[in-house]
Amino acid sequence: MLDGDQGKAASLAMCILTKIGEIYDADKMVEIGSAHVLGHFGSLHDAGIHVLEKFAGSNGRYKVPTTVDPASMDLEMWREFKTPEAYAEKQLRLCRAHLRMGVIPTWSCTPYLHGNLPRYGEHISWAESSAVVFANSVIGSRTNRETVGLEVAASIAGRTPEFGVHLEENRRGDILVEVKATNLCDIDYNTVGYLVGKTFGNRIPVLTGLPQNTGIDQLKCMGAAMACSGAVAMYHAVGITPEATTLDHAFQGDHYSDRIEIGRTELKNAEEEISTVSGGKIDLVAVGCPHCSFDEMRKLALLLENRKIHRSVEFWIYTSKQVESLARKTCYADIIESSGAKISTQTCAVVSPINTWGFESVMTNAAKFAIVLPSEHKVKVIYKKIEECVEAAVKGKV
Amino acid sequence: MAKRVIVRGRGISSGLAKGTAIVTKQPFMFAHGIDVVTGTIIDERHELYGKSIAGKVFVFPHGKGSTTGSAWILENLRRRHGPIAIINLNAEPIIAAGAIMARIFFGIEVPIVDRLEKNPLEIIETGDHVDVNGNTGTVEIVKESRKPFRRRTPPIGTSVHST
């Protein structure tokens, strides 16, 4: 493949993968079952367009099922969301390059909810740090935190160098996180993730104390926060995730090198620490990081039913096109929009130029939004649970 | 008299570059951490905030942050306002992929060397002249010997301000 017998794109892809494999002492390449690639102009820049167009132009085709992360704008209502014309044109070039190579146009950070569901133990090549954590931890498939270019190369070649968490021994838990707080609500999972990532960077935490009824949405949010405040590629939750049936299983029979306890006090302090201001007027409430599932949309609709969002506040819910279309088949989209809230699909506040709105303060229930938005868009952030976000949106302030 | 030190490491990305070092002991985040157009560091939480890495030999422990990092490096290099060489304790895929793609797609060579036999964060200081050989993994550090500071007795009648 490297010598071009399978075309120029495959040869380019193998050139990148081989070099990375050499650097990380990979013994071999492993075949992958799926890929998840990045496609937002906000981070890919002109250089990313060049790379993708080069691959697409030399007949690059995704060899394995390949989904794509959110775009840097709502792909249908980008004008309504004040996306500059020139910016939109660049995003659309990226979209065309991906489509030409055969991407499944999901434009969502939750590929596992949209048809890209790898099996346990399967090697995959995924970018999007929150999806990587989910795939490794909750599903038990195997991917490193692939960076821009590598995921595309891997999907074109259908393989990736075997190093990092592709190898069994590198999936061993390293630190023990004892969650002592009880009655965890949705935001607490975000905050636990934030604390773990912040404290332990890129190591592999093993969590105990999470309730048996912990759901997929909660695990999704916890992993997203971990991957963002640290560089966590996977976690284990004893009795909940597949490579952690017992504590011993998660640590592969070895000892942990460090431990922390997370009680109600730690959660409360962290919640305050994540916010950059404690109150005041708010301009935007942003929810859906990672993208809302149908169930999260349903819960939002119940909270927003018969409420009116304050006229000075925007309330945006980020989700995929698929979840939105399900919401439209039910009463939930209507309820949400009657309150004045908007459903924005195929994008999110992290990757789109929301600064064209001139927002000064943003409120959110998602730790990842709260961590990234202040530096990305120079806004103040208030991080509170969803019920409080809705109350504040109705009043216009906290 | 300049003092020369030669240390060996591992060449991650090939190429030759000579220039002035900018050094930090903090891990560095390219994604959202750098103005790709100018090479200025825009991460307010980083100690090099406001400084530029354009045209410098950038010495830092390792990368961190979003998986989009390689695209930020690539754009910064494409605009010719990136570092001319990188020295890491341990390079990781984000940094390595950025440099590899810069060579493949834009013909820009940015040598990267890591795993030096001596800790580069201790032996290289900002302002040192550094010669990086990514082909052999060799780094040569030239330290200009500074003239000893002589305290001058101020003329009588002038006040001395502490600065």
The CATH fourth-level homologous superfamily of chain B: Phosphohistidine domain
Which value, in Å, is the CA radius of gyration of chain A? 21 Å
* Net shape of chain A: globular
User: Approximately how much beta-strand content do the residues of chain B carry?
Assistant: 25-35%
| Alpha carbon gap, first and last residue of chain A | 59 Å
Specify Rg of chain B, calculated over alpha carbons.
Answer: 18 Å
The level 1 CATH classification of the largest domain in chain A is Alpha Beta
Which second-level CATH architecture of chain B applies?
A: 3-Layer(bba) Sandwich
Shape of chain B: globular
Tell me what the structure shows.
The complex is a heterodimer of chains A (398) and B (163). By secondary structure, chain A is of the alpha/beta class. Chain A folds into three domains: 161 residues, Aconitase, domain 3 (2-Layer Sandwich), CATH 3.30.499; 101 residues, no CATH class; 121 residues, 2-Layer Sandwich (Aconitase, domain 3). Chain A is 40% helix and 14% strand. Chain A has 14 helices and 14 strands. In chain A, helix 10 links the parallel strand 10 and strand 11. The mean pLDDT of chain A is 96. Chain B contains three helices and ten strands; from the N terminus they run ββββββαβαβαββ. Chain B is globular. In chain B, strand 6, helix 1 and strand 7 form a beta-alpha-beta unit. An eight-stranded mixed beta sheet of chain B has the order 1-10-9-3-6-7-8-2. A two-stranded antiparallel ribbon of chain B has the order 4-5. Chain B is α/β, with parallel strands linked by helices and 163 residues long. In chain B, helix 1 runs parallel beside helix 2. Chain B has a single domain, classed as Glucose Oxidase, domain 1. At the A-B interface, helix 1, helix 2 and helix 13 of A face helix 1 and helix 2 of B.
What's the helix and strand layout?
The complex is a heterodimer of chains A (398) and B (163).
Chain A: H1 8-23, E1 29-31, E2 35-37, H2 41-57, E3 66-68, H3 85-100, E4 125-126, H4 129-139, H5 150-157, E5 159-161, E6 175-179, H6 186-200, E7 205-208, H7 216-229, E8 236-237, H8 247-250, E9 258-262, H9 264-274, E10 284-292, H10 294-304, E11 314-319, H11 321-329, H12 332-338, E12 342-345, E13 361-364, H13 367-377, E14 380-383, H14 386-395
Parallel strand pairs in A: 2-3, 2-4, 6-7, 6-9, 7-8, 10-11, 10-13, 11-12, 13-14
Antiparallel strand pairs in A: 1-5
Helix pairs in contact in A: 1-2, 1-5, 2-3, 4-7, 6-7, 7-13, 10-12
Chain B: E1 2-8, E2 10-13, E3 16-23, E4 34-35, E5 40-41, E6 57-59, H1 69-78, E7 85-87, H2 93-106, E8 112-114, H3 120-123, E9 129-133, E10 138-144
Parallel strand pairs in B: 3-6, 6-7, 7-8
Antiparallel strand pairs in B: 1-10, 2-8, 3-9, 4-5, 9-10
